[in-house]
Amino acid sequence: xxxxxxxxxxxxxxxxxxxxxxxxxxxxxxxxxxxxxxxxxxxxxxxxxxxxxxxxxxxxxxxxxxxxxxxxxxxxxxxxxxxxxxxxxxxxxxxxxxxxxxxxxxxxxxxxxxxxxxxxxxxxxxxxxxxxxxxxxxxxxxxxxxxxxxxxxxxxxxxxxxxxxxxxxxxxxxxxxxxxxxxxxxxxxxxxxxxxxxxxxxxxxxxxxxxxxxxxxxxxxxxxxxxxxxxxxxxxxxxxxxxxxxxxxxxxxxxxxxxxxxxxxxxxxxxxxxxxxxxxxxxxxxxxxxxxxxxxxxxxxxxxxxxxxxxxxxxxxxxxxxxxxxxxxxxxxxxxxxxxxxxxxxxxxxxxxxxxxxxxxxxxxxxxxxxxxxxxxxxxxxxxxxxxxx
Length: 390
Fold this sequence. Notes:
The chain has eleven helices and 16 strands.
């Protein structure tokens, strides 16, 4: 008898079998996972305020909402969430340096989908564009260019993680006149580095038309509230921006925000399933992320978001001092919430569930990354340096 028709299959753990599983057993599985991920391990840098957030927005998980292809359109099938989405987009556009009416966009299911929307909106106005990305760019940026069938050019990074403008100038000169999609980074995975949009535009603009999309999903919220003079937004020449709404705000689902300048030329051949309305390229989406973002931002207010970011920046500065005293050779890009340091022994990495990139480890000053947590990790780094095991 085949596994498909076997009325009494063996216990397969998490496998989805032919017969219904036990609801009680599956609930125990999920509760065990919840305890492991939410309470029993120190995932430093991940939100710890999800419990409070879920108390605020939990009822939204009991509804279904499907967004149409155009967040600005109104028709007889309007589910009522477009008004909420417009307010969310208006908030992020102002945060990203856009004047009223200068930018439009949509809320996507993930930062990757939001980035795809920005690249689609930009490439139609260029002859035969290539995508220029930093060698330290997030892998999703490279993947987005590949999904669009565009030639990707890797540009050298400087020691601080920012793009080498001279190498960009050389690479774009080799492809003179073809058009360049120069994806700037506002928060690289390792250093949290922030590219200078104006410099990149000037470097590639000598040899043909240029569009500068900015991947600000990792660092946009921090950059917008930083005291540092950072060139990353619409005010500095960006043509489109991708931001993330879940990691720092602590949402239970991913959310990406795609914003583009209204004057951009729409692509001549949109991808299947994508709609073109004016200069906006967007497909059908779920409305849950919109409502979660709106509820969270409303509960904080602009002042609350600024205060939250300031607190995170203070923790990052404290970590830089503590890790330096522990002899861990830390680095933190100005205005970033990312602190990297010399990779400690395995027992330290495992105890604090650190992210490791080669010979460097990383923390991000969000969520449970409090002064107390930093001090405890610093003590572990100091003990490791002295050869003391946990």
